[in-house]
């Protein structure tokens, strides 16, 4: 059995809807351990201490991301695969800063960011003020005070080693930031036209050019709402249609973790409060099963 660290961060402080804090418990109760054991993995839970009191949401978000960064750094430094189970996507600022800290200056890694959103705002451009819209900007080295210091030698991530897949809801300012960095983006429309597997093949070729290691940051809101209703409440009626087809995503990600150099992944933005008949929880388990199945 291959060890894998399940880093549970029950924090929704980076979003206006705190329901995502319930996702780690929902997945824990829904046989995610058995799913991983069925793929030859030996999971160990690491629960991040997440502050729940106080009115300073930014401070709580930062504390959670810092806890994630510390746990992920330990996993990578000790040679174990990890899965960070959120919680909202602001936690990813901690995940990939932790990876960068473990690898040290000069060691690069690639990152697949599979998400309906770009998450590349700064405090100067965000229309909502929510931290889950800013982790990519911080990872690329932009000034986001809430995430300052998570990476000891920023930027945590080089833009040429980053690919976004599934984007279909974003503001002009974050698109401009990513364009300035030259980040490769495969929007949802392209995925619909070509298929997720074909797009993923091209994305992996981009992000792994000159790198030996890579990871995945997976936001379940990339999936069409008809199949994944359990996301942030404000997004349920947002005009994101159509999202990606669940079956296409499950098939396309099959065996990803078996590829050489796979470090680990985020699984974020599942909101059990808005799920219907556990459809999104079931989908998340199916994605995990597919990702960690031997190719």
Q: Could you give a quick summary of the protein structure above?
A:
This protein is of the alpha/beta class. 35% of the residues lie in helices and 16% in strands.
Q: How is this fold's topology laid out?
A:
Layout lengths: L1 E8 L13 H6 L3 H6 L3 E7 L9 H21 L3 E6 L5 H12 L6 E5 L20 H5 L22 E4 L6 H10 L2 E3 L1 H7 L1 H12 L6 E6 L13 H4 L9 H7 L9 E7 L10 H13 L4
Parallel strand pairs: 1-2, 1-3, 3-8, 4-5, 4-7, 5-6, 7-8
Protein name: Arginase
Family: Belongs to the arginase family.
Pathway: Nitrogen metabolism; urea cycle; L-ornithine and urea from L-arginine: step 1/1
Provide an overview of this structure.
This protein is of the alpha/beta class and 295 residues long. The chain has a single domain, classed as Arginase, Chain A, CATH 3.40.800.10. The chain contains eleven helices and eight strands. Helix 7 packs across helix 8 (196-207), helix 8 packs across helix 10 and helix 10 (246-252) packs parallel to helix 11. The longest helix is centred in the N-terminal third of the chain and has 21 residues, at 57-77. The two termini are 17 Å apart.
Overall domain count: 1
Helix content: 25-40%
What is the name of the CATH topology? Arginase, Chain A
CATH superfamily: Ureohydrolase domain
> Which shape, going by the Cα principal axes?
globular
CATH class value: Alpha Beta
Overall mean pLDDT:
94
For the record, the CATH architecture stands as 3-Layer(aba) Sandwich
Low-confidence regions: none
Overall SS class: alpha/beta
The largest pleated sheet is described as: 8 strands, parallel
Radius of gyration from CA coordinates: 17 Å
Percentage of β-strand residues = 15-25%
| Largest sheet: spatial strand order | 2-1-3-8-7-4-5-6
| Helical run tally | 11
> What is the N-to-C order of secondary-structure elements (H for helix, E for strand)?
EHHEHEHEHEHEHHEHHEH
Tell how many strands the DSSP assignment holds: 8
